[in-house]
Amino acid sequence: MKNMKFTKSVAAGNDFIIIDNRRPGVQSRWPEAAKKLCDRRYGIGADGLLLMEKSSSADFKMRIFNSDGSEAEMCGNGSRCAALYAHAKKIALRQDMKIETMAGTLNANVQGENVKVKLTDPKDIQWNLCLMIHECPYKVSLANTGVPHVIHFVDDLEAVEVKKLGPKIRYHEEFSPHGANVDFVKIADRNKNRIAVRTYERGVEDETLACGTGAVASAIISAEAEKLVSPVTVETRSGEVLKVYFESQEGNFKNVYLEGKARLVYEGELLE
């Protein structure tokens, strides 16, 4: 990886390292590279590594490696950072672009630092599951918004021990073998269709400051369970807000968009 250039990006507190991998043969051991580069003490530090690659069906292909080296199907905030990077670096020549991911093709629009991405339609939605954890029942719902998310409503978001309860749900046998991300959701203002979310992310194995696909999953589950309507405003742990737009009918969702600010923070070059 010596002399390889990178860009650090952030969206709602989710931070990523972006590497232009459109040239063949640059690097093959990306899982190991992700773990090294994302380390916050000995590396650059990030929630994940984004690779920009060539695509025959879209403006570019995005691959996402979590900080533990695992490859994810998709990343909502990561896709917004990738779109901003593609626009800045002229990889995509228009403000509207298509992004190929393992979860399907996404559509993105870049207006300055505001990036809006149309995600794939949510699937595999399951309502009112009951998980037994330490002999206590937890009522949750599940939605796959590119990656699987478990939604658990709480009254006091600050009191939730995310780092203790998150792994118990993430690794629960109900979601084996791959597990799921976990979102703890509070209805912040029903009249304004506003929710607050804290997320324990699979692959990062910790609470993150935001999660795009988690914001979407939380919004659509809240829409059905708590009668919220589009667009839903999502307060993230970073303090930034995201907007989730959707159409719904009888618990099915389509035309789902995630919108918010994204930034390219700095550029650098790897020395070793």
Describe this structure in words.
The chain has 2 domains: 5-115 and 262-269, Diaminopimelate Epimerase, Chain A, domain 1 (Roll); 123-260, Diaminopimelate Epimerase, Chain A, domain 1, CATH 3.10.310.10. Helices cover 17% and strands 46% of the residues. The protein is built from 4 helices and 18 strands. It has helices at residues 30-38, 76-88, 162-170, 212-226, and strands spanning 5-11, 14-20, 48-53, 60-66, 71-72, 96-101, 104-111, 114-118, 123-133, 136-144, 148-153, 181-189, 194-201, 206-208, 232-235, 241-249, 252-261, 263-269. The chain is globular.
Structural class: alpha+beta
CATH superfamily of the largest domain: Diaminopimelate Epimerase, Chain A, domain 1
Mean pLDDT: 95
The largest sheet, given as strand count, sense and whether it forms a barrel, is:
18 strands, mixed
Q: Give the distance, in angstroms, between the N- and C-terminal Cα atoms.
A: 6 Å
Strand elements, count? 18
- Total helices: the number is 4
Order of helices and strands: EEHEEEHEEEEEEHEEEHEEEE
Note the overall shape.
Answer: globular
Quickly count the domains: 2
What's the helix and strand layout?
Elements: E1 5-11, E2 14-20, H1 30-38, E3 48-53, E4 60-66, E5 71-72, H2 76-88, E6 96-101, E7 104-111, E8 114-118, E9 123-133, E10 136-144, E11 148-153, H3 162-170, E12 181-189, E13 194-201, E14 206-208, H4 212-226, E15 232-235, E16 241-249, E17 252-261, E18 263-269
Parallel strand pairs: 2-3, 4-6, 11-12, 13-15
Antiparallel strand pairs: 1-2, 1-18, 3-4, 4-5, 6-7, 7-8, 8-17, 9-10, 10-11, 12-13, 13-14, 15-16, 16-17
